[in-house]
Amino acid sequence: MRNFIQNLIGILLVGFLSFPLTISAYAADGHSAVYLNCEHTRSDGNDTAATVASPHLPWFPNLVITPSEITSTSIKLTWDAAQTEGDSRVALYEVHKVETNCSDTSVPVPNDDDVITYVANNLSPNTSYKFYIVAMDYDSNYSVINPSITVKTNQLPGPSGKLNFDSKLQFVNEHSGTATVSVIRSSSDNVATVKYTTINRSAIAGEDFIAKQGVLTFAKGDTRKTIQVQLINDARKERLETFSLKLFNSDAIGTDNETTFIIRDDD
Questions:
Q1: Closest of 124, 143, 116 to residue 59, by C-alpha
Q2: What is the pLDDT of residue 251?
Q3: ∠ at Cα 17 (13, 22), nearest 5°?
Q4: Which Gene Ontology terms of cellular component type are present (predicted)?
């Protein structure tokens, strides 16, 4: 125990003299010995390269963790591989997740590239998490100056808004060549998709119009999309004929999810 305390004091003193850091110190078995004030970041805010006190421990030449692909429930983390001296190599990394109540959980990530990637899942929306990464070599030596970062997840997506046709019934002339209708949505805070298809009524696909199916994708901010159906203009005298377009396969579909076209023979 005395040797452990002496080693710990030596590590903290070297870290204090060389770099003003708030760090975790690790015993030979890799268990955390000190976790100062639930902090794992460099106190000077500088993420430039640093060298650890002992050449026998893994060390990070770059103390930067890059977050990306942040959602309401996940964060992707990327960092440069740690290095070692001598014959031993880095075996794995412990990715520690620290929550606001200072609870600390970790998962092992293999050392398989020069740049390491890990995706933290099952996070809570609109919540800050602190991550720090510890390297372990094949001799069970642990790094003591470790990269860390605090990242906040996104808020839950807002409502996508209801999707409706802008008209439930409209006349089209056969010679016009196309029947056009718009799909509108009431809110544009989120991405939304909806499928559509033509439906035979008294007008028949292949005789009076060209059947059409597809998917409309509304990006964030989009409020209107247009669908065009090609009409078949023939020389026959015909009465008024109808066909429909229907929206389906979306949780955002509103009440006006079907529209009917009335084709007028204008020959």
A1: 143
A2: 80
A3: 70
A4: membrane
* C-beta neighbour count of 205 within 10 angstroms: 15
pTM as predicted = 0.47
| pLDDT less than 70: residues of the chain | 1-55, 157-160, 267
Q: How far apart are CA 149 and CA 40, in angstroms?
A: 8
State the pLDDT at residue 107. Answer: 81
Judge whether 246 and 258 are in contact, CB under 8 Å. yes
Rounded to an integer, what distance in angstroms lies between the CA atom of residue 16 and that of residue 155?
A: 38
CATH classification at residue 105: 2.60.40.10
Do 20 and 71 fall within a single domain? yes
51 Cβ contact partners less than 8 Å away, ≥ 6 residues apart: 18, 59
Which two tokens mark 177? 């060549």
Give the domain extent around 214. 163-264
